[in-house]
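One example copied in:
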Amino acid sequence: MKTLEELRREIDAIDDNILELLNRRARLALEVGTVKAGENRDFHVPSREREIYERLTAANSGPFPNEAIRSVFREIISASLALEAPMKVAFFGPKATFTHLATMQHFGLSAELIPQKSIPAVFEEVEKGRALYGVVPVENSTEGMVSHTLDMFMESELKINAEVLLEIHHYLLSRTGRLEDIRKVYSHPQPIAQCRNWLAENLPNVPVVDVASTAVAAQIVSEDYTSAAIASELAASLYDLKVVRERIEDQVNNFTRFLVIGKKMAEKGGDDKTSLMFSVKDEPGILYRMLEPFAKRGVSLSKIESRPLKKKAWEYIFFLDLAGHITDPVVADAVRELKGYCQFVKVLGSYPRAK
């Protein structure tokens, strides 16, 4: 059996090899950037990233876990892209919010992440070319759809390039870390709603105050020793807070879905989703007729959401998620037939389904 010192020397030698290979990869990435610039190609190609992840996880024989492979290579790819050109990504901030966490999860730590004060501001940054992509929340498994995001797609020509699913865990944070010190709790309305039962049971007589974001809550609490914030674990480190209780959300499976928006449609992959927006008049049988083109072609629908059309009474905008890419013949045919029943149909994007 090898001694501990011998095993550590072998690990050090492997780490040295990994470092050398990372630098070789980085030099090749710089050459790729030069070729792309000469041929006027996009420097970021999401489908290429997806191919890398899928190839490596399929080839992995273990014991290194597949989930960790994706995390490691996300950072390698993020750092390599940063060598080619600065990857600017706008997100609905501020920092330490769950949208910030989702943005880091998707783009890695080497991207230049730019917090915005509102969802419309994220769209504007991308539309005006100040950011290559934007990240906005669209749906929570407990609280439902984010209406501001849906409303923006009525006006914007940006496309959905990807989706990010983030498991949401809420932490109760304070300066002292003691539950008995808490006289007031701050957070965004959604986390408050997701922790309502826990708060009622554990802090029944403590007032709860709505603020603009979980990060704002953490910032307030960083200056008040008698209050607490419901926020992310990241907020604790950024605002020098202690964890009073962890994972206080009422629902165990609490996920939020985020959308990555950009100017171009994502290329077709192996497991895609397409999002549509369309408008119909409120008349008998219309719901059946707008779903029939997908049902008879066997196209699976995963989400349908309606919102009133603000300019006309009793008319609605529908948002629909379906399996497949808009370039798939069966999907394209179904959408073409749908147009016959609608005042307008808009393809919001085709993009890889979140794993």
